[in-house]
Amino acid sequence: MIWGLANPKLGERGVTEALLRHDHHLIGTGQVILADKGFACGEFERFITEDPGATLIRPDRKDETPRFGKFGGIRQWIESVIDTPKGQLTLEQHAGRTLPGVYARVAARLLALALAAGIWHNWSIEAPDKRSLIAYDH
Known about the structure:
The chain is mainly α.
């Protein structure tokens, strides 16, 4: 997983490409990457598909040959997955006054979510020590 905070004026395609170039090992052969129409760019698609052999799937634009169709249901699911932690963890109301403060507050909230998920998983598999996170330290 990669994440970052960026100036909204930079554009999501440029920021995503910069993050993936930095952590290029996260893109693997056979991997499917879902994107929206904003990622329609031959250069970006070549970046994803050539070197690691991943597949970039995005909704078809009106001016191109149909390939993948529409993603209404998938997009709604993705948006709800993203919107839930943003709302519950108040990621947009972080109250950080400096860039390091914003990073620290957002990272702390994401870490708390990851820890809660680990504890929930321990309960769901009936692990003997429900609050132990040692199994997830790698």
